[in-house]
């Protein structure tokens, strides 16, 4: 712009200082300068003041004329764009912003405003690209880089302060907003993190990395329909990425839409067949759908492309009806040797290989070698998870001591009256998948999967105790009014609706850990049914110990821990049986094996359902099954697994000691058993 005389510069500085707080005064002073002659900086100041006074349409022609005479001034193009945007002159705003981003491509705010205007003009893909250019520009912003370094270095308070300060100056900064959301996530504040990342995506819908992060946060909080909505937007990005397709497939798997997920994996493998992770994911889908030969081929393709891929070997070994042969054992032993130099970084591959070799040697009846590898896998995995047996026992005891008969009576009626849910609870490897498969073969019952919703609700309530809102668990539960209980029950019904694919009136939630919450279940869903699947403690615990679970079940990686867990479970269920007789129906696995029809009739009577012969031919049910027993429940009941633990008895001393008399009296409960400390 033209250099003004010193006295005019002083006047301009004085008027400019009034711009934000007193734009009317700033305008008056700028117009006074202009009355004495043509002064472009004063004209610019007048236009700025007009826009801040809400008179953008009045400022627009003056700014356009000024920009025409001085086209290479970025600040002028920015003001013109802002005025045009506010005046509804979208095309004029786009032209100004395109000029600005050509001149100053490093200014992210210009790109983001351009994206907004392009969308207003219906140019969705161009707007998306502008957002991506804005993100790219922000990646070189020194202030944001400094905040990112602090965040990645674990200095979360410092990063939080820097980002908050920036947002106070530039509240529409989508990149800083997303980063602040990540800081809150790292702090463990999921609610605030979600709010911030959702805000960032709303500011810049083409901010692919923010939407990707949002999808992962939604998955962590089990908000699956919202995750699907966002990932279906993400796959339409003009910047194509196989990662977007993989994320869509992951969401579909979580929603039980296995066929759609499988189609995505196949498409990706057609384009690039040497992707072991995608082969493994396809194997998981085919296993769930009951296509065992296809699953075997997919897992073998994964280990062919990456012989040290422990999870793929375990996925193959975990197909309970598949036996790994001498060549497989040699390949896995060789993979362990190859991993030795990087064993610390590749722990997951190492422990998966140990579990796989444990299963392979078990199938070969080399029991000592089998136990050695199972033990090595469990010991390594135990170092990677957190499980405090004492703390867990205290939580179980608190629940058992809360839901006494007088307490239940005092709470009275309440909750959501929906009769839909059937909770199948117990320990993993207790026969719960068999029970689920039998019941889901009934015309009135739909099988879903292990649903986390009840655990999420229970965890949220427990957090209120841990945050100091209540002195103890009992006080928190006692505070729940009938309306609270109804709301929580309705929340459960609503959150699980996405997993129901048929119009059958009843559905199964097979999350085994829900035994910890039977009191809460009956409090908020009084008409729900609870089936407790129980198996001999040595058989069940040993089977769980030699099974690596994809997530959760942190108590299974130590024989003492799993024995204590089983004992706590038996004691807690005994306490609830005494407090609410008949509320829970127990299925003893060994009885189900010996006299299937009688046990099926008993459980159907408990559920008030008529007997159907299809329940005895459960293995013909082609529904998707996602647990470790998916192949076993697709064949008639067999007795081979009932006493598999006996071959390993010489090494099960810690398990026997932890179980105590629970193992000796099974299926009866030891008299006077209390939750162990």
TrEMBL record:
Query: Has the keyword RNA-binding been applied to this entry?
Result: no
Any Pfam family: TPR_14
Q: Where are the transmembrane segments?
A: none
What keywords is this UniProt entry annotated with?
A: TPR repeat, Transferase
Annotated TPR repeat ranges: 174-207, 276-309
Q: Which InterPro entries match?
A: P-loop_NTPase (IPR027417), TPR-like_helical_dom_sf (IPR011990), TPR_rpt (IPR019734), TPST-like (IPR026634)
Top-rank taxon, per record: Bacteria
The molecule here is called Sulfotransferase
Q: What organism is this sequence from?
A: Novosphingobium cyanobacteriorum
